């Protein structure tokens, strides 16, 4: 009997022993559930714009941690484990319900991105930005004061209205002068791109004026051929490769007439249109060494030729401020206009006490006259410029005869040969 009781006690003890391991298995489940709830309850709502993710909440947090972690030893759930399973379940359920109510609300703030806060829209500053230089809304990188994603439509400017003065082929319109004046104050590519209609209209106005002026130039000097406008008018773009001035555009319109247009070795007539700086001139500016040597040789051997041109009545009146008919005074007025590029010492091969040393030191041979805006614009502007060009014809003809002389014709060659034979006889 004692043995049988022992067997029964042993048998009864065995089922009890098999049930006890289930308790440790259920406990980690509850503890895992409470731990997940606690992690969610500890998470700070993403309301701060400077919110940063804590290291404990980084990806991979669901991986099991070692049992000897100090965080588990100091966990606040140790007291809940001692209270029992009922308390644990109610506490976990209450935390989940409260959290679901909090995060399911429609009024929760939307998460904000990191970085500096966006500035609110300011209509007054947007309106004022149109009047500030360099702060126009069409410029790249300008702060419009609008929220991100807001569309801003800016109408492309139209050309200025002609007003009471119509555009004509034989005049310079006042709007052309206004455009050049604005360009001098806003000499950058973005501004010209936004004011391209004004530029096109002004350029067309100047080109039509040049076409009519070309007719006058050909009448005055029959050596000037009829060339297309593109071979006469200078481009508005500046060559800034070797310049300390970074401005990309010229603030004037200009054209030149020669036997080869605006380019070439021949002396040319030059017209320059710019607000308060209009200019009409002609000649050779810094000719090549070969041409300069020919001019100096001609001045040394035949000085009377250039002096006869400089004492011309039209040249003295229009370009030398009406000096008397005196060779020395005319030469002095001419060298004064070209003193900027002249040599400070005698040129090589000539004595410093040469009688025409002032002319020999020159490196440019030009004459010109400044005109007011009122003299250029209006009905009389074309004729005024044409008259000045007519006065320069003897000067241009002399320069071309020295630098680029024409080949002698057959009649001239025969006349020269007969003259030489008569002189020999």
From TrEMBL:
It holds the Pfam family DUF2461. Signal peptide: none annotated. It comes from the Eukaryota. Residues 20-30, 41-51 have a biased composition (Polar residues). Residues 1-134 are annotated as: Disordered. Residues 65-86 have a biased composition (Acidic residues). InterPro entries: CHP02453. NCBIfam families: TIGR02453 family protein (TIGR02453). This is Uncharacterized protein.
């Amino acid at each position: 009997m004692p043995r049988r009781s022992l067997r029964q006690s042993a048998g009864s003890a065995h089922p009890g022993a098999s049930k006890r391991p289930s308790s440790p298995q259920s406990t980690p489940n509850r503890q895992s559930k409470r731990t997940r709830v606690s992690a969610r309850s500890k998470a700070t709502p993403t309301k701060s714009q400077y919110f940063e993710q804590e290291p404990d909440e980084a990806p991979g947090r669901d991986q099991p941690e070692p049992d000897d972690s100090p965080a588990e030893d100091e966990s606040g759930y140790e007291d809940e484990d001692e209270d029992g399973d009922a308390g644990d379940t109610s506490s976990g359920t209450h935390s989940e319900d409260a959290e679901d109510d909090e995060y399911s609300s429609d009024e929760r703030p939307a998460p904000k991105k990191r970085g500096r806060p966006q500035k609110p829209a300011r209509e007054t500053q947007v309106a004022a930005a149109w009047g500030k230089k360099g702060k126009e809304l069409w410029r790249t990188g300008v702060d419009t004061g609008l929220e991100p994603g807001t569309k801003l439509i800016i109408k492309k400017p139209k050309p200025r209205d002609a007003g009471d003065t119509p555009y004509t082929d034989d005049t310079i319109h006042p709007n052309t002068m206004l455009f050049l004046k604005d360009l001098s104050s806003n000499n950058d590519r973005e501004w010209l791109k936004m004011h391209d209609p004004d530029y096109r209209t002004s350029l067309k106005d100047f080109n039509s004026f040049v076409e009519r002026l070309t007719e006058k130039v050909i009448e005055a000097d029959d050596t000037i051929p009829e060339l297309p406008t593109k071979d006469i008018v200078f481009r508005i773009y500046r060559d800034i490769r070797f310049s300390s001035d970074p401005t990309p555009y010229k603030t004037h319109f200009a054209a030149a007439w020669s036997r080869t247009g605006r380019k070439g070795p021949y002396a040319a007539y030059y017209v320059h249109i710019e607000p308060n700086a209009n200019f009409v001139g002609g000649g050779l500016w810094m000719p090549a060494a070969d041409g300069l040597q020919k001019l100096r040789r001609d001045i040394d051997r035949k000085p009377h030729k250039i002096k006869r041109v400089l004492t011309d009545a039209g040249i003295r009146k229009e370009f030398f401020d009406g000096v008397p008919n005196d060779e020395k005074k005319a030469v002095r007025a001419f060298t004064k206009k070209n003193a900027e590029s002249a040599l400070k010492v005698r040129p090589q091969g000539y004595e410093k006490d040469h009688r025409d040393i002032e002319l020999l030191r020159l490196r440019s041979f030009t004459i010109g006259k400044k005109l007011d805006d009122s003299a250029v614009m209006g009905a009389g502007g074309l004729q005024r410029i044409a008259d000045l060009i007519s006065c320069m014809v003897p000067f241009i003809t002399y320069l071309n005869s020295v630098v680029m002389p024409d080949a002698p014709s057959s009649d001239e060659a025969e006349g020269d040969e007969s003259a030489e034979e008569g002189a020999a006889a």
